[in-house]
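Database export, one record per block. Field names are fixed; values are copied verbatim from the stored entry.
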Amino acid sequence: MKWLWLKASDVWLFRTGHPFNAGQNDTARSLFPPSPLTVAGALRGAVIQKNGISWQDYSQATEDSEIVRLVGKRGLGNVGDFAMQGPFIACYEPETNLFYRYFPTPSDIVSPEILDGESPQTKTDTIILHPEEKSNFYSSMELQPLNADVDVEPHPGTWIREDVFTNYLQGIPPQYDRLVKSESLYTSEYRFGIGMDYRLGTVNREEGLLYQAEFIRPQPQIGLLVRIADIITENLGTEGAFSLGGERHTANFKLLEDSEVYTPPTFEPGGQFKVIVLTPSYFTGGWQPADWSSLLNGDVTLMSAVVDRPQKIGGWDASAGEPRTMHHFVKPGSVYYFQGSPNINGESITENPPDFGENVAAALGFGQFALGRWTY
């Protein structure tokens, strides 16, 4: 697989999973980074166009055709040889001449709560939570409470650079000033629009259809990193552009060498390990799968978890011209604590929603994760 660097030529529009209809809602919110479905769909579409195939011809392609072998059939039952990891917010750092990914600050990184009269600027330390040791008081509980001895607060809306994240995985708390606020990576711009009559392809003349949409403007050094299968890069080329997100805004892409992207050191987490979700994960049990041991391919016991509210993901099926079924995914930054010995095969921990084919969620970039250490 190879890394692909995506840069916005202007702004991007990536709708959240919340329903929106001009006349019923006044603001269309955006999500950054976008859902793996959004980027994977755009890349599959770019490959189709690069091969000079129309949407009509693609919809009629047979299972043994070259294009179906490459990107699968329309819908999510089969994605062919397409495989992707990401997308991740990333930054090019001229000082090191490397690209670094940014991850949502894990939910178990917290700080002592700010007291009255204190300002956030006085905060210097963070704490990494972990399960408390078992006691008679907690022996009947399925999951163990965490070790917060004082009132603490999490850091939603902040990000952690990959090299700092690597230290966190080994149990080293980041300094508070190493947590990056969203506005340092991208800003939001609101623009007005008028509801469309898509049957005629014109502006709808009814009253009350004025709305505003939130667009994402990445900072100058910020873009998206995705890692895609070699056979897909061979069809895309080393650089170019394709439409990404709403209103057909452009993503300029460039193929990167592995040496241009920061590579974290590897380590064995040991018998007490935690799983940090990096891209949305789908589990049949909502916040967890039916059987962790099967998913992690080992004898493991879930000890505790810090799980955020679910992320709703649906999207638009461009080939069918209709919305996709919406599903609830575990949000990136969620943390699961285990005891045991995993033997994870592959780069993802996710199950498949009912309308996805076998192993399709992992192939589209869902369920990316990192393993870290924890101790009592």
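Remark 1: DSSP finds seven helices and 24 strands in the chain.
Remark 2: The CA atoms of residues 77 and 357 lie 4 Å apart.
End of record.
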